[in-house]
Amino acid sequence: MTRVTELPLETDKMVLNFGPQHPSTHGTLRIIMELDGETVTKATPEIGYLHSGFEKLGEDLDFNQYITITDRMNYLSPLCNNVAYALAAEKLIGIEVSKRTEYIRVLMCELSRIADHLLNVGMLAVDLGALTAFLYGFKLREDIYDLFEIATGTRLTTSYTLVGGLMRDIPDGYDKAVLKVLDEVDKVANDIETLLNKNRIWQDRTKKIGIISKEDAISYGITGPMARATGIEWDIRVNEPYSSYEDFEFDVAIALNGDVFDRYLVRMEEIRQSIKICRQSLEKMPSGDVIVDPGLGYSLPPKDEVYNSIEGLIYHFEVTMPNRGMTPPVGEAYVPTESPNGELGFYIVSDGNRTPYRVRTRPPSLMNYSIFSKLIEGHMLSDAPAIIGSINVIAGELDR
Amino acid sequence: MTAANILSKIKENFPEAVLDMTEFAGEQILHVRGPDILTLLTKLKADGFNFLADLTAIDNLTLGGYERFAVSYHLLCHQTGERLTVKAYIPEEKPSLPSVESLWKTADWQEREVFDLYGIKFEGHPNLIRIMNPDDFEGYPLRKDYPRLGRKERSDFPVVDRGIQKKKS
Fold it and tell me: Computed from CA positions of residues A164, B86, B140, B68, in that sequence, does the dihedral angle turn out positive or negative?
């Protein structure tokens, strides 16, 4: 037996800088990894590259203005952020919105959830080398964004909600457009599962990777599909219903192993349940107004009145001028909502002024990502994209 | 055990730690002294509030309150689905209170965030360093006396000279 080389094998540990510019981090994440061969022995995530001071900014913007900032937090499902913030502000002020508003909000949230999960599953697949599933999902996501554009006017920076209602009602015939896309979602969800579920490579790359136990999930504050993949039966839509979620019939998807594969399965099942909720909300859509002005100076009058009547113009100024309108009570409110990533909460403290005293976002990404270093330890370097993909870290929301 | 029972028991057992109990918009808020927070949260966790949903701070500079800073903990009980806010007050002169990282691992990053943005120190935290801002950042941006436009102008930062500029002739 002849040796190829006489040099001893290098056994020193190596430090690898993963990110902040890495294609599989989907944003600006940085992880400093210690490698032993190809095995990760220690990983330290460093965040804050996208810190933009949203919470500081919120102290200078009034309740309706801050809604535009919430779009920029989770840029995969901005409508969920809009709704969550509006709910927190309404709880603080004590506004009851109309039933129609609540149903439209549910519809929009569920469409966002479908788009978010489709993109997440697609990205996870493309990071592991399966391009087809990604293309199927991405094409459909574009169709859903078209639906958002019809209703809100924009694809991404929707700013659809207002404190006390919605910016505008959904147009006539919107239900037909939604139903057409929903049928398509059903097909594509089946296609993606057919491609991936029994694929040997997919299973090898995702099963028994990044396992979270139930206890760890609770200790690390993990919520949403990641927590449900560990077997925790907790869905805020069911357990603490908001925005009329109690009117809808759907199942909570859970899995038991808590690995990357189970998180993928939970997300696929949630897409199906969301389709059900969307259909129900279109069927049962109540009639009525979408803006209810409680007379406290929160809602702007219709533009038609502003331009054509002096009363409308005066009222418009009453709302928008810094020293008028908006007299919220002194107090604080925390509202948790079930966003596609988990518990998205807004905590608003008010001192009775036009602008909130403190606006805190409880970002699901931050808590979900904090377990990453524990998950990757002992796994191969090539498992890092799989785990990051299954966590679905949104840097805009992570760093705010 | 319901939240109301737990709260009245807490008030009985820790009369000195609990400053007040209020309710706003249907939410229970427990106001406590900062140094006792670890003991109280250990008790609350044992009583069923097993999930720390959120940890953040409020600067009471113009709002008023028992002390300058309040650290608020949003707890959730998975069994009954009840939520509870605990606000721990700490003075400006000594902004520090015990870390709850030993109870919930999620407090690790969240306490780091509060330390970064408010300068509140958590005793017993394993790795209390800045998380959002760079390590050499000065000041605590979410404090009310920190101006929104920041404290430094672009011209205050050093210019990196890579030696490629043309010499002035």
Answer: positive
Give residue A393's region: left, alpha or beta (phi > 0; psi -120 to 50). Answer: beta
Mapping DSSP to helix (H, G, I), strand (E, B) and coil, where does residue B5 land? helix
Judge whether A95 and A81 are in contact, CB under 8 Å. Answer: no
Whether the CA torsion B27, B28, B34, B37 is positive or negative: it is negative
**Tokens 């001192």 appear where?**
A351
Please answer yes or no on whether B53 and A216 come within 8 Å at the CB atom.
Answer: no
Residue A334 has φ and ψ, to the nearest 5°, of: -120, 125
Q: How much is the pLDDT for A270?
A: 92
Chain A residues within an 8 Å CB radius of B110: 221, 366-367
Which domains does chain A possess? 78-349 (1.10.645.10)
> What is the C-alpha to C-alpha distance for residues B107 and A2, in angstroms, rounded to an integer?
57
In the predicted model, residues of chain A with pLDDT beneath 50 are none
Question: Chain B within 8 Å of A357 (Cβ-Cβ)?
Answer: yes
Residue B154 predicted with pLDDT over 60: no
Using pLDDT thresholds of 50, 70 and 90, give the confidence band for residue B150.
low
**What pTM did the predictor assign?**
0.88
| C-alpha distance across the termini of chain B, in Å | 83
Q: How far apart are CA A354 and CA A158, in angstroms?
A: 23
**Dist CA A258 CA A228 (whole Å):** 8
What pLDDT was estimated at residue A84?
Answer: 92
Q: How large is the ipTM?
A: 0.85
DSSP structural state of residue A24? G
Domains delineated in chain B: 6-143 (3.30.460.80)
- For the stretch B65-100, pLDDT in tens is 888 899 999 998 888 888 889 999 998 888 888 999
Query: Is A393 strand, coil or helix?
Result: coil
| Minimal-distance CA residue of chain B relative to A241 | B81
**Contact with chain B for residue A370, Cβ under 8 A:** yes
Determine the residue of chain A that is closest to B132 in CA distance.
Answer: A48
Residue B51 CB neighbour total at 10 angstroms: 24
Give me the pLDDT at residue A271, please.
Answer: 92
CA A351 to chain centre: 29
Q: What type of residue is A220?
A: Y
User: Nearest CB to A370: which of B24, B56, B109?
Assistant: B109
Q: Which residues pair with A36 in a beta bridge?
A: A39
